[in-house]
């Protein structure tokens, strides 16, 4: 009996991932990530293979921060290895080991047939007998390189390239390890963005094996998890090294493989000559880490190996003549063994997991494979059972399963497990005609705890809250942590809203009792949103979304309370999502417009400038009011992009009008805090003015009072840079914020704008008149100009003029005008041109 020997044509991947040499390396990395492969073949227009671009090349590119648009044809550095399609797998193993290859093109009749990788070589060796014998600890190799979680990814890439490593370990702050491989570097290059720290970019947890494990165990684990590296741990649990496919190839002793193949050939010949005996390779049988039992056709044990005694505690003499029932634990039902024998009799093989009992009485879990040995006539002669103790692996799997379904900080169910429980509860309620409630709990001002007391105090507070919520649970209730400061509570088979409201109040009380948590005196409250099944949804996702919506309504209502979901909340949430989606495309679709409202001198009515006002003309909704979409732009970070468009458009309009001989005066543009903090706003403004040939006096920047008072992020420095550039700065909506006059007088602002809320009733006297009078007095004492907005009546104009306010805007003079109408107004007035 003989076995066919595999060739490279049998294992090569014929689905080549190819690209032209002009393709940017970032796009090449993206294609490799999408195809989950470690190399891409670079071919010219005639189909000639120029080389391979690999993950190692990606490491070099990312380390050097080369231009991501560099053509891949200029970045090839990997030696192109070519192997014939009919090369046998043993010869390929030797070629990969001696030439230290990771990839090779397989050629047939002068054309590339496919590609074979180190992973393909290891997965298709089929040398289980040898891999069982070879121990990981006997392999040569350097100790693992482990960098701290806070390390710079560039340092990691430099170390990998300098030491020729395909992976390195990451020591996590909370204990344990993560891993960074060349595949991760490829992903960073594809995204053209490095993570801030190594901890953010690594994958965790790092899967590993003890150092005394066999190469077969290592290969099985690599294949099971579809990974290319394992950790090797010592007896004390410490990380010794990282084991990859290349280490397995290097660990194969070629001479011994030939010896083993010859022994197997002789064994097959002996099986043909003597159908009543079973010859095994003594070296493999005696030294394997797996236990082996050989029985006759009736299941009576005829032979066991030393690993059997080590695992079970029974000696060879104690086992011979017995049946494997000697190890029964009673954990499997009789039906289990009946099914096992049916498979053996029908298929001649069975494999699975069994819980057995050692001689000392301890239970252990084993992975068991049983094979029937038949003669030429098909009659069963023997059964060979091979088993390994997987107790530790099962415990590790159970731990991983727990971590995958529970929050690491509080040990509460996490989002994944909670959604499963919620969906199951919804299905049970549907069948039983019952009601259930979902409470979405979000802590109020939790960010303040982290910012003032530190994240450790915040974590301790979350742990205390989790325990407090658990202590309040009634039978049939489940509490979970979704992440951050968000918790959820599931109530099944509830009676009505009154009962749910009582439970919500109990949870609020439980949270507020934690005023002394983490060793600090603090007051913590929560906001709770409630959705009910089936009224507010019939599936887990819908119930969670609606509870979240209700929670935000509870926060808007003043916090430290709860709110039931109502359909109008969902309508508003959907409307906001629709607006945000449409706003993302508004710039590209040229739906935004800039309108202008004139500013006039109160005494003469002369036009002295205008405020640029953003308008959005939606193709379906028409003109969308600014108060509906500006807050969305602020929250979604679109405001910086939109603000840049406003600035560019205002400069272009000013240039066009001046070239036409018109005098628009100084154009005022509103600038948000996000825009000032985004990039280098001062340089962007300077470039915009230069592009349109405008001096800095052509523009006025209106900044809200709260932004002016924010000294965080270098805001004050930015304002002084703008002053140095010569731009006129004014404070918008003055009087609605919290300005400190002593602070205000040190800022480089030149004007104040009185908010329209103080203008509406000022002509009738009262508080508004007093406030407006005070603002004008403050501005004059500080040497600042004053502009009043929202002036609609002649009495308001006279009052402001009498108090010393020189400039205003509002419907009394003109409503906001589209750019074309404002230009017509300029032509109509035809005032002498003023550059400043």
UniProtKB/TrEMBL annotation:
Limits of the PAC domain: 348-402
Pfam families the UniProt entry points to: CBS, EAL, GGDEF, PAS_9
InterPro entries per UniProt: Biofilm_reg_signaling, CBS_dom, CBS_dom_sf, EAL_dom, EAL_sf, GGDEF_dom, Nucleotide_cyclase, PAC
Domain GGDEF: 434-567
Domain CBS: residue ranges: 11-69, 76-132, 140-197, 202-260
All residue ranges annotated as the EAL domain in the record: 576-830
Matches recorded under Gene3D superfamilies: 3.30.70.270, CBS-domain (3.10.580.10), EAL domain (3.20.20.450), PAS domain (3.30.450.20)
PROSITE patterns linked to this entry: CBS, EAL, GGDEF, PAC, PAS
Domain spans labelled PAS: 283-323
Keywords carried by this UniProt record: CBS domain
Protein's UniProt name: EAL domain-containing protein
Annotated organism of origin: Chromobacterium phragmitis
